[in-house]
Amino acid sequence: MSEPGVAVRFTQDFNPVGVRANPPFRVNVSLPASGTTTIRAIATDRFGNDGPFAQLAIAVVSNHPPVVLLARVSPSSGPLTNGQPFSLAVSATDDVGVSNVTVVGIGPFTFATNFTSGASNLLSFIVPSNAAPGALFQFRAQATDVLGLASAEAVMDLPVVDSLPPQLTLLSPAAGAVLNPAQPLTLVVASADNSTNYTVQVELSGALTATQTLAVAGAANATVTNTFNFSLAGAPTDGSVLLASCAERTRLPMRRP
Known about the structure:
By secondary structure, the chain is mainly beta. Helix content is 0%, strand content 54%. The N and C termini lie far apart (122 Å).
């Protein structure tokens, strides 16, 4: 408007919201959560004459929360195993716009990241080789739109199945050691496993047959040493070979010293 002394009155749904006497003749209005509202403006000159009114109808649509998607890529299904690579994809959609996607993971390792849009992103991982049997990965993803509205969380649980056998080492006696039948045979075995409970079994065959089994409880991936004692009473003394086996076989010749 070029005429001096002009003022503009604004109403919203016929309720006054302000008067402006200087250009650019603007007022701030509050929009409803949903529905339609109408803004009207009437200009009045310095002599009190009103001009025709102008109006603007605004349709307000409710802001819907974004939707986040967390999906397996590889492998597409089934449990995970020790040392196995795996990948997930995360994406989000919204009726206005996605401003942030957050992904966190807990379990054999922890993970956290965020993205500034809803575009699809690939997340690649490797199961730790020492992950405990029955371990569970849980990944959670949540998206936020540009107006600050958050999505429901997408949650994914991935169990870990044990694929590693226990590690066993026969520490003593050494292979080929000469045994005294008058003395018990003492076998010292070192073992370790990614679980906290497992079983160690020692079998004797050849000159003597016997089996002993021991349940081991200890910290995961910690080496535990156990001793097995076998009586050699009645064992032949003609140089027969005694075979002791746990994870590996060790030949022990039976001879009278």
